[in-house]
Amino acid sequence: MRRRYRLRLGVLAVSAAVPVGLLVAAGASGAKVSSTVALKIRVTGSGRVWVTGKPAVTCRAASCSHTFHVRRRQRIVVNASPRTGWKLTKWAGACKGSSETCSLRLGARRSAGVAFAPPGDPLNPYPLGTAVTLTGPSGSWQVKINSATSNTNPPPPAGWQYTIVNLTMTYAGSGSATPAGFLHSPQQMWAEGPSYTIYPPDGCAPPQPDLDSTVHLSAGESATGNLCYEIHTGDAGALLLSGHALRGNTRKTVWFALR
């Protein structure tokens, strides 16, 4: 009787050891490293992002994000394309610079950000020759900057520079109005440099035709002429011209490039 009892204990002991081995094997397989890794892209502004070989994601809101799953430690290329008229200004996080492509090799989960600036933003000003509708107390005007040149006759004060801006203004309101009434409303069509100094139009005498002295214009009529901005010489290379555009019920400042 004792032998049988001992044999049964031995059988039970062997049987109980089997699940332990199975558990060890299962634990080892669970620790296996995944062959893919996540890359989260945060987008500010309007544009598309994609990893080469994968479908693109389009962001039309103020901001959005998407996570791509890519092969671990494999070289990938992240692409970003701004919406028409917008501009890619910078990458952040795992990507750097302002190129439309970013090359990465990921060993772990990472994130990157890309920013697109809208037309008229200080980082993406409207280029010369672009017609933009602006709003002011005297109504709406379509404004187009034709050129911007420096002028030294008469000589400006030491440390200053005269910038002559030639532009075309078309009245888009009702009744009639003068460009001068629009130009001299607060901060309307003022120039601004990197030092955040603002310069009002006709701070110096422009060559004729002087846009500031034109007569009343009716709806649809245009006038082309010059304005003169007296600016610090240090601001000349990055000078921008600002105006106000109506976006819905909100007036928004927009910017024109002078170079």
Please, could you describe this protein's structure?
The protein has 259 residues and is mostly beta strands. The chain has 2 domains: 82 residues, Sandwich (Immunoglobulin-like), CATH 2.60.40; 127 residues, Sandwich (Immunoglobulin-like), CATH 2.60.40.1240. It contains 2 helices and 18 strands. Strands 4-1-8-6 form a 4-stranded mixed sheet, with no helix packed on it. A 4-stranded antiparallel sheet has the order 3-2-5-7, with no helix packed on it. β2 and β3 form a beta hairpin. The longest helix is centred in the N-terminal third of the chain and has 29 residues. About 9% of the residues have low confidence.
CATH architecture group name of the largest domain = Sandwich
Largest sheet: 4 strands, mixed
Number of domains: 2
Oligomer: single chain
**Element pattern in H and E:** HEEEEEEEEEEEEHEEEEEE
**What share of residues is helical?**
10-25%
CATH topology label of the largest domain: Immunoglobulin-like
Using only C-alpha atoms, the radius of gyration works out to 33 Å
CATH first level of the largest domain: Mainly Beta
Q: Low-confidence parts, pLDDT < 50 over ≥5 residues? A: 5-18, 20-28
Q: What is the number of helical segments per DSSP (H or I, 4+ residues)? A: 2
Report how far the terminal alpha carbons are from each other.
106 Å
- Spatial order of the strands in the main sheet? 4-1-8-6
Structural class designation: mainly beta
Number of strands: 18
Shape category: elongated
Strand content: over 45%
Query: How confident is the prediction overall: mean pLDDT?
Result: 85
